[in-house]
Amino acid sequence: MPILSQTDAQALLKQVLGYSTADECEASLNGRTTGNIRYARNSVSTAGAQDTISLAVEARFGKRSGTATCNEFDEATLKRCVQRAEEIARLAPESPEYVPLLGPQTYLKPPSAAPTVLSPTARAQAAADSINLCAAKSLTAAGFLDGGTSFVAKRNNKGLDAYQQSTNTDFSVTVRTADGRGSGYAIADVTDAAKLNAKALTQRAADKAAGSLNAKAIEPGKYTVILEPAALMAGDDLSLLGGLFYGLDARSADEGRSFLAKKGGGNRKGEKLFDEKVTIYSDPMNAEVPGNAFDGDGLPTQRMSWVEKGVVKNMLYSRYWAQKNNVPATPFPSGFVMSGGTQSTAELIKGTAKGILITRLWYIREVDPQTLLYTGLTRDGTFYIENGAIKFPIKNMRFNESPIIMLNNLEAIGRPQRLAGCLVPPLKIRDFTFTSLSDAV
Amino acid sequence: MKRRDFVGLTGLAAGALFLPSFPSLGGVLVDPARLLEPGADTAQKKRLADAGLNAAKAAGASYADVRIGRYLNQSVFTREKQVQGIASTESYGAGVRVIANGTWGFASTNTVTEAGIAKAAQLAVQIAKANSKVQKEKVQLAPQAGFGEVSWKAPIQQNAFEVPIKDKVDLLLGVNAKALDLGVSFVNSILSQVNEQKYFASTDGSYIDQDIHRIYPSFGVTAIDRASGKFRSRQALSSPVGMGYEYLTPKAADKVAGPTGSDIVGYKYSYDMLEDVAAAAKQVKQKLTAKSVVPGKYDLVLDPHHLGLTIHESVGHPLELDRVLGYEANFAGTSFATLEWKAKGLPYGSKVVNIVADKTQPGTLGAVGYDDEGVKTKRWDLIKEGRLVDYEKIRDQAHMVGQKESDGCCYAQSWQDVQFQRMPNVSLQPGKAKLSVDELVSKVDKGIYIAGNGSFSIDQQRFNFQFGGQVFYAIEKGKITEMLEDVAYQANTQEFWNSCAATCDESDFRFFGAFNDGKGQPSQSSAVSHGSATTRFNGVNVINTARKIG
């Protein structure tokens, strides 16, 4: 039941809209079926599965709006849900940020090839493969595998009709040496679970763990660094590029409270803020990271350029802010692509006289929104590079750096890889600022 | 943000209703009046729970517990002169946890009937048996006698859900109006309220009914200097608390002044939101022109609203036994305070550092009668005169450190999530000798007083941390002299706590709260309080965080 077909979803939404007496009414269905397994100390710790489906109804009278939700779909419950949304709308104050509901839209069809979803047995097998590989080498694995299918359907009395389904599987594993002095990490997210290779990823983490033993301390300061994609983007926490991508909001910039605010008023759209090698766009039709066909408002997504050759080309305009400023609204993208080159991380290392390879960053928090300054630490494998080769593992360090400054100090860009629904290349950056050492492994 | 999370958000059609930090936890939006309707009575819940326990035993479980939970939330969000959103949600269901073949299994359902819960119990046993094939360490539970049928209610004076929404909107819009009158550029304010109605039953013979309340008022003000493009914010100095609406009726006895010259007021068991926003409006404008700090070593004087977060990150987390043992290695991390480290007897902090864990303090976020695996809560020492004496542990961990009982700090964020070890309230004990904040500051030659918590980051074993704050003042020759900006301090946990020189007495003690502490995969949120008095740390490394972008 959690995943309705387009036909079934449309029929249900039509029925719901039929109960409405409001000026405007929009109904949305959201369903998800997911399962996960978690392990640590080379043993499974917990596993879970969740099926959820819910209906949200937004009713509007003039500029007054009310929303109600339910997760049962018999006629009486559906009618009550619509009535409650209408009652709440009648009592609500007029919204000064009112924007009419969208009418009919035309959507792209992002690629989806009947992707595989893992069964509970397959999840347990993946965990067992990961654990057995580590146990055989006296290493300790801790990992998490989580995936499933979701759908969203939306319809309103202005003619909007939208439906999409997606699948996603995430896997991450941390491998530690028995003495706790070495640690390595690997992560992957895939649309098609058949493409997930837990064993190969665990092997990668195990190699990093072994390679990170006997780390030496070096003096904090400014260094040339190579950041692997997992150090630039994260699905479950703040990240250097995630903070930048999702910080392209026009409203906060126009209000004067963002790194994109312009002295004296307005925003910095059209200005060159980064090195000319920096190009960032979103594209729902990208085969490697297929995106959503529409955003939360039902706006159709399309290929959109955000930064081109270092120049800010577009910013995120909500429908309200776009209406107020008389510009088109920008649909919120489900992922970003940062254009890259052809070099692998290994090739970037080869071309580096002196530097540091960062494989993962951790606990990143904003320090100053004015400059988008972030702090955080390296984790699970950090290495010193000399004359084009990794020389030795180094102890972890804390950084204080802004992605704005970082993307001006850009030396080279490698081949993009998928991470957290985005395509992210490894980056070689000069003068990356480390401020202290950490004893953490 | 993951793609599927984004897809997940689209269900809440009204964008205004989905706002950051609103914990919907699988709940559905309901009429506010619904939040006052009683849930199932204990006789009904016992019958439902027994159906789950019996089904689990019949399917081969050696242990089972059933949690029937009704989780009620309400949040009101405003900015400047408008209400952005009001949402009331209810989430009702049951989670069944079992041990079969020495392995945990868990399943949940929102079909709260005897058949529905029995089916979840059978599924949990199936999962446990399937996972037992990958299991290397059999679960061992510390013994726990059943309590029979008991109940516990948070000692609140006024259920926040009984207060009309109009009063809450008036309060928040009043706060915003005050800030705008005083010249801030932007203000947003929020009031979040939570009621957990939890029923726990286990094959040990416990049937525990509990009623828990939390409330969190907060705001943020921003001042902008358009000419220079500079902007600064100041967040509220309120704390989320385990109280009812009475927290919002200010009482003079609950106000504690910061050091002379600092313009800071701290709050104990009641909060004056209008007074705080007036202070914030004044301070945020001062922040625009405050002197940028000269980096170097300073003696820090940390107010409890700031120090609470430092305690949380550098003591509360590293002493979670699941981290120590490696269960959180893939995400939250492990801990420097391993069993081997503890055995060495090295000092965690100086002699004045006495840190206590406590799940019983009235009005705190961590206070409950029993935890989510039916263990009666208690108070215990973590650090005594600077030495680590114990960890935070639950039933399946006690034997791993040679102990026979759980500390009662097991928690699940909802009925649909499995319970696991979470942080209790962890507090620095106030000094025994009489010591006021002014007396503390008077001994500092070159220092910085920090109020409120800002940016925070710590490594995965809890050695190296960096903290900012809301408001900073320079201390020179025993006196507060001027406001500072661009301040953050970096330290190593052990060096920091060993540099702890003095802490004020009981009269200055108050609680800070963390409303959404995250741990686990999938991540779960919990709420916890941290008490302390204003405390001095010597010779801490302060950095300047100002940068220039093109």
Observed structural traits:
heterodimer, A: 441 residues, alpha+beta, PmbA/TldD fold, 2 domains, 10 helices, 21% helix, B: 550 residues, 8-stranded mixed sheet, 20% helix, TldD/PmbA family protein (chain A), Metalloprtase-TldD/E_N (chain A), metallopeptidase activity (chain A)
Strand content of chain A: 35-45%
Largest interface: A-B, 124 and 92 residues
Question: Structural class, judged by helices and strands of chain A?
Answer: alpha+beta
Q: Please state the oligomeric state of the protein chains shown.
A: heterodimer
Mean pLDDT of chain B: 93
**Rg of chain A, nearest Å:** 24 Å
Low-confidence stretches of chain B: 1-25
Write down how many β-strands of chain B occur, each being a DSSP E stretch of 2 or more residues.
Answer: 26
Number of separate helices of chain B: 10
GO molecular function (chain A): metallopeptidase activity
Domain Metalloprotease TldD/E N-terminal (chain A): 25-89
Family (chain A): Belongs to the peptidase U62 family.
Pfam families (chain A): PmbA_TldD_1st, PmbA_TldD_2nd, PmbA_TldD_3rd
Topology:
The complex is a heterodimer of chains A (441) and B (550).
Chain A: H1 6-18, E1 24-40, E2 43-61, E3 64-70, H2 75-91, H3 120-136, E4 139-156, E5 161-177, E6 183-190, H4 198-211, E7 222-227, H5 229-232, H6 240-245, H7 250-254, E8 280-282, E9 304-308, E10 311-312, H8 319-325, E11 337-338, H9 345-350, E12 354-358, E13 361-368, E14 373-378, E15 382-386, E16 389-393, E17 397-401, H10 403-406, E18 410-413, E19 417-419, E20 422-424, E21 427-437
Parallel strand pairs in A: 7-12
Antiparallel strand pairs in A: 1-2, 1-4, 2-3, 4-5, 5-6, 7-21, 8-9, 8-11, 9-10, 12-15, 13-14, 14-17, 15-16, 17-21, 18-21, 19-20
Helix pairs in contact in A: 3-4
Chain B: H1 3-9, E1 28-29, H2 42-58, E2 63-79, E3 82-100, E4 103-109, H3 114-131, E5 148-153, H4 165-181, E6 186-202, E7 206-225, E8 230-235, E9 255-257, E10 265-267, H5 273-289, E11 291-292, E12 296-302, H6 304-316, H7 321-325, H8 339-344, E13 355-358, E14 379-384, E15 387-388, E16 410-411, E17 420-421, E18 425-428, H9 437-442, E19 446-458, E20 464-476, E21 479-485, E22 487-492, H10 493-498, E23 500-503, E24 510-519, E25 524-532, E26 535-544
Parallel strand pairs in B: 5-7, 11-21, 12-19
Antiparallel strand pairs in B: 1-3, 2-3, 2-6, 3-4, 6-7, 7-8, 9-10, 12-26, 13-14, 13-18, 14-15, 16-17, 19-20, 20-21, 20-22, 22-26, 23-26, 24-25
Helix pairs in contact in B: 2-3, 4-5
